[in-house]
Amino acid sequence: MCWRRARASPTSRSARRGWDRCSSARRRPSTHAPRTARSSGGCATPACGTSAAEKRSAMSQLTWDDVTDGQEISIVEEMSSQRLVIWASASGDFYQIHYDDSIATENNLPGIIVHGALKGMIVGRLLDEWIGAEGRIVKWGVSYRGMDRARMPLTVWGRVTKKYEDGGRALVDLDVGVKQQDGTTETTPGTATVELPRRA
User: Distance between alpha carbon 188 and the CA centroid of its chain, in Å?
Assistant: First the structure.
């Protein structure tokens, strides 16, 4: 599954949602002020929560030269039931197992579960905040391999697997994903490629 920033008119549904499913290999999310990796909280929009105070804006722009093979990044995201209701409203996914405990229980679930698309979005947000305003997400995608219960923190992570140049572009490949509170159970694995500026 991959995602791109909606380009529709302000009155369209996709513009209100903010993100569209896509098959394009090139896309760029918004360049809102990023925060330092390994902080807690959600993003600055109502659909994804409240941003932590830590910002990359106080730091220099990340460059391709700064990145090393095996480098890791991560944030911890709190998945409250309120956040899932807001996401349901923003995305149009009103399946009750995401916000109604009784319906979730009737479907043999331990409680309400996090939307898969929301997990995909927070992976993209981690990348967006790491690369900074001058970086670009070339592509990213995740697979939904397991359920995550609401009201439990999730670790969103990335690890550099390759750093290279291609056609004059400075690129970085990463493994990405979402892990449960135990830090080992991976529910949303994926990969990404980003482009970064070179150091002046």
Answer: 11
